[in-house]
Amino acid sequence: MIYSPKELKNRFEDYLAEIAIETNPGSLDIIQVGDDFASTKYISFKRKFGQKIGIVVNNHKFNLDSSIDSNYLKPQILD
What we know:
- The protein is of the alpha+beta class.
- It is 44% helix and 18% strand.
- The chain has two helices and two strands; from the N terminus they run αβαβ.
- Strands 1-2 form a two-stranded parallel sheet.
- The longest helix has 18 residues.
- The radius of gyration is 16 Å and the shape is elongated.
């Protein structure tokens, strides 16, 4: 059987959406430093896809000259 790339993409998205409904998929956290157009566009695609399959996408955006506490970027252990 031959599938078109668009059909395969749609089937895969449907599969991921089913998994998200059955399980707690968590979330995707993105750390963006700066305001690069390509990065912003890429993140918008990730956000749109996350919404489509039921995953929360959080974008943490910082200016290039921002100073942040180093503890902010340490991994957090979740229960």
